[in-house]
Amino acid sequence: xxxxxxxxxxxxxxxxxxxxxxxxxxxxxxxxxxxxxxxxxxxxxxxxxxxxxxxxxxxxxxxxxxxxxxxxxxxxxxxxxxxxxxxxxxxxxxxxxxxxxxxxxxxxxxxxxxxxxxxxxxxxxxxxxxxxxxxxxxxxxxxxxxxxxxxxxxxxxxxxxxxxxxxxxxxxxxxxxxxxxxxxxxxxxxxxxxxxxxxxxxxxxxxxxxxxxxxxxxxxxxxxxxxxxxxxxxxxxxxxxxxxxxxxxxxxxxxxxxxxxxxxxxxxxxxxxxxxxxxxxxxxxxxxxxxxxxxxxxxxxxxxxxxxxxxxxxxxxxxxxxxxxxxxxxxxxxxxxxxxxxxxxxxxxxxxxxxxxxxxxxxxxxxxxxxxxxxxxxxxxxxxxxxxxxxxxxxxxxxxxxxxxxxxxxxxxxxxxxxxxxxxxxxxxxxxxxxxxxxxxxxxxxxxxxxxxxxxxxxxxxxxx
Length: 465
What we know:
- With 465 residues, this protein is of the alpha/beta class.
- The protein folds into three domains: 8-40; 79-285, 3-Layer(aba) Sandwich (Rossmann fold), CATH 3.40.50.300; 290-464, 2-Layer Sandwich (Ribosomal Protein S5, domain 2).
- It contains twelve helices and 23 strands.
- The protein has helices at 51-58, 85-91, 111-122, 138-147, 163-173, 198-215, 236-240, 287-291, 340-353, 379-391, 417-426, 459-464; strands at 8-12, 18-19, 35-39, 79-80, 95-96, 100-104, 129-133, 155-159, 177-181, 219-223, 243-248, 255-263, 271-277, 280-283, 302-309, 312-324, 333-336, 361-367, 399-401, 404-405, 411-412, 431-435, 450-453.
- The strands form six sheets. Strands 8-7-9-10-6-11-12-13-14 form a nine-stranded mixed β-sheet, with helices on both faces. A four-stranded mixed β-sheet has the order 15-16-18-17. A three-stranded antiparallel β-sheet has the order 2-1-3, with no helix packed on it.
- Strand 13 and strand 14 form a beta hairpin.
- Helix 9 (340-353) packs across helix 10 (379-391).
- It is globular and about 75 Å long.
- It starts with 7 loop residues before the first strand and ends with a helix.
- The model is unreliable at 42-47 (pLDDT under 50).
C-alpha cells in the first residue's frame, strides 16, 4: 500500500494569506516573494483541540451552561482603571474583566512599551500580572523595564511561545492580567504548520479567548501589521477579540495616537494621544496645545481648524503650498494626513466655483503633527489654506475655519459645533468662520468673534478682512 502523501500549502509571511500553490506575489498584501511552504493538516482531528489541551483549559474555570435570558445579570461589566487616562479613554473607561484586546501598530511605535506600563499600573500587592513574550529574552525585557523605571515584584515575565507552556504557567501563577507579545509567535500543538501561519494564529487566539472568558482575566494581545497597516494574519482574528486598537503616527514624530476600530464595551470614536519619551509613553491631556505649539507666525498657507475625535475636539494646523509646476509636466497633488481624493475634490470645487486655474500648479497639503483626519469638517479650512498660499496672503493667526463644502460650493453645517467653538475660544482665537445657521441651536454667548458664511464667494472677504 502506497504511503499517503502529505499535503502542503503556501502562506504569506507578511499577512498570513494561504493558498494551495506558490505565487510570486501575494494576493492578500501585494508583497513579492513572501510565500512559504507549510504542511497542511492531514486530517480533520488535527485542526481540533487535543484532549490534553481541552482538560487544561477546562480546569481554568467553570464551563458556561445555558440559562434563561431573563435570569442574566444585566449590571454593567465592572471596569478597572489602568492608571493611564488616555488608555482608559480609548477602552471606554477602563479594562473590562474577561475582555480580549488586540493592539496593532508599526514596529517600534510603542505597543510593548505601553502594555508594559499598563501591567506596571495593574500590578499591586495580591494582584499579579504576567507578560509573555515570544520575541524578547528576560534580560532584554529587564533592560527595557529599567529604562522605564519599572521594578515591580508583582509583574512577572515569561519568555515562551507555546500555548501549552503559557497555559501551564497561567494555571500556576493565576495572574489578574495577561499580555501576549505577539500572537504571530505563538504556536499550538494541534497545528503542524509553523508559527505565524493563518491556522496557527487562529488556533492560538481561540485558546487565549477561551482562557479570558473562563477565568474572567483580561488579556492583551499584540499583533504585527502588514505594509498596509492591517494586522497580519486572518481577518477572523479581529472578529474573535472584544477590542481592536491601532497605534498611528510616523515614528519620526514623538506623538502617538491610539485609536479603537472595534470595541464591544465602548465607543470606537475615541482616541488617545501619547508622547514617546525616554521613560515610556506619557498621555497628552490637551492635544490641541501640542499640535499648535510650533505653528509659524505671519506665513501664507497656514490655517487652523477644529476636528472631533470621539467626544474630544482637537485644533489642528493645516498647511498648504501652491507652486508653479514644471513646464510640460503633470501637476502634483501630494497630501499628508488628508485623504487624497478629498483634497482633489476641494481643488476641483475651487477651480469651478472660484474660477481659479490650478492646471499648472503643484499643490501640497499637510496636517501638522502626524494626525490623520478624515471628517469633512475641515473642507473649508483646506480651501482657505490653498487660497492663502495661491494668493500669497497671510491669514491672521487668530482665525480658525470650520465647515463642510458641497459640490456646488455651498458651505454645509457640521456636528458638535459647540465643542469646537469652546476649544477655539479657550486657545484665544478671535475670528471663527463657520457655516451659516450652524449656531441656531448653539448657546454660545461670545458670538461677536464668529463669522457665518454660506458660499465660497464669501470666504475670501471673511479671511482677509
